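Preliminary data (for renewal application), heme C complex.
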Amino acid sequence: MRFMLLAGVALVLAGCAAPADAPVGVSVGAELDALAADGRSIAEAECAACHAVGEYGESPNPNAPVFRTLLSRYSAGVLEQELIEGIRVSHPMPEFQFNPQGTDALIQYLQSIQQTPAQ
Ligand code: HEC
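Predicted structure:
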């Protein structure tokens, strides 16, 4: 009986889980969601002038890749490192220097919006 109740709850949770293609599953706790929300704020404040930072839309700067597919080309680990060190690739991006918390948040957010599973 207890088991059936739990199974029922799990089904309900699965039913209203965020987009099925999101790499983060139903097991994501409130803490991670808060982190991703922080990341979204950072992206909107720091990156949205050029990049499309949400789940749809084109980048204001056509040369700037949309964030929702970024992690299919870039591994989260590499990106994290580059954000901490400040991205210094030869492109017209302002130089950023994130602290590890801000980077975690941003990566978490990016992972939550990827349309193809992150590598
Ligand atoms: C002033 C405009 C601008 C802002 C603001 C901006 N970017 Fe970019 N970004 C670009 C452009 C343009 C490119 C593409 C450059 C290229 O392909 O040479 C790019 C590329 C990138 C890339 C891919 C780099 C690569 O080598 O493929 C990443 C990752 C990235 N941006 C992250 C960010 C993050 C994270 C933020 C916010 C913290 C941000 N960008 C803010 C303009 C911007």
